[in-house]
C-alpha cells in the first residue's frame, strides 16, 4: 500500500513539473510558450495589405517620366484608390484586380486633361502628377467592378499629396491625377503583388 501511494505521488509531481516546463517553452500549443502571431494592426494613416513602407527604391527626378510595360492578359481594373502617410513620403495606392501585369507612364504635366474629352480636370494642389496605368480594361471585359471615382483627399498634414482625382479607363489606360503641394516633388513607382497594386510615392 505504501509503495503504491509513493508511486502515485511521484507521478503527480512529475506531471506538474512537466506542465510547468512546457508553459515556459517555445513549443506550440502550450500556454505562454506559444509564439505570438507576426500580424499586427496597420499603423494610423496606412492601409492594411499595402506595399512595404520603403524597400530602398530610389526616387525619380521630377523632370523625368517613369515608364513600365504591361504584361499578360492585360485585363486589369482599378478597384480602390487610397492615400497613406509614411515617414518621408506620401503614398498613393491604386489597387487592381483581374488578369495580367500592370504597366504605367507616370510624370508631371502642365495641367490635368481628361483622356476621353480633353477637358481640364480640377485637381487640388500646385503641381499635377499624371498616373496612367496600362494593361487595364473595361469592367465588362475584366469582370471586375471599377473604383467609383470619388476624389481622395491627401494626408492630414497635406505635406506632399493634396488630392487624387480618378478618371477611369479609356482605350486600355486608366488615369489618375495626383495633386502635389508646392513645386513638383521627386516620386517613385512600384508594384505590389499580394494584393496587386501600383503604388506611387511622392517625397515630402
From TrEMBL:
<feature type="region of interest" description="Disordered">
    <location>
        <begin position="32"/>
        <end position="72"/>
    </location>
</feature>
<dbReference type="InterPro" id="IPR056303">
    <property type="entry name" value="AMIN-like"/>
</dbReference>
<protein>
    <recommendedName>
        <fullName>AMIN-like domain-containing protein</fullName>
    </recommendedName>
</protein>
<feature type="domain" description="AMIN-like">
    <location>
        <begin position="77"/>
        <end position="203"/>
    </location>
</feature>
<dbReference type="Pfam" id="PF24837">
    <property type="entry name" value="AMIN-like"/>
</dbReference>
<feature type="compositionally biased region" description="Low complexity">
    <location>
        <begin position="36"/>
        <end position="53"/>
    </location>
</feature>
<feature type="signal peptide">
    <location>
        <begin position="1"/>
        <end position="20"/>
    </location>
</feature>
<keyword id="KW-0732">Signal</keyword>
Amino acid at each position: 500500500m505504501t509503495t503504491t501511494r509513493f508511486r502515485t505521488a511521484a507521478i503527480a509531481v512529475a506531471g506538474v513539473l512537466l506542465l510547468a516546463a512546457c508553459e515556459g517553452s517555445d513549443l506550440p500549443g502550450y500556454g505562454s510558450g506559444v509564439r505570438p502571431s507576426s500580424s499586427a494592426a496597420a499603423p494610423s494613416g496606412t492601409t492594411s495589405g499595402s506595399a512595404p513602407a520603403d524597400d530602398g527604391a530610389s526616387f525619380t527626378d521630377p523632370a523625368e517620366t517613369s515608364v513600365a510595360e504591361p504584361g499578360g492578359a492585360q485585363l486589369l481594373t482599378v478597384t480602390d484608390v487610397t492615400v497613406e502617410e509614411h515617414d518621408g513620403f506620401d503614398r498613393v495606392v491604386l489597387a487592381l484586380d483581374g488578369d495580367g501585369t500592370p504597366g504605367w507612364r507616370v510624370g508631371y504635366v502642365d495641367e490635368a486633361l481628361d483622356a476621353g474629352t480633353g477637358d481640364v480636370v480640377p485637381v487640388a494642389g500646385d503641381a499635377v502628377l499624371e498616373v496612367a496605368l496600362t494593361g487595364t480594361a473595361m469592367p465588362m471585359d475584366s469582370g471586375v467592378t471599377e473604383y467609383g471615382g470619388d476624389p481622395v483627399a491627401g494626408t492630414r498634414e497635406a505635406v506632399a499629396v493634396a488630392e487624387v482625382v480618378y478618371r477611369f479607363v479609356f482605350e486600355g489606360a486608366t488615369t489618375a491625377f495626383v495633386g502635389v503641394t508646392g513645386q513638383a516633388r521627386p516620386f517613385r513607382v512600384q508594384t505590389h503583388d499580394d494584393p496587386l497594386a501600383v503604388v506611387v510615392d511622392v517625397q515630402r
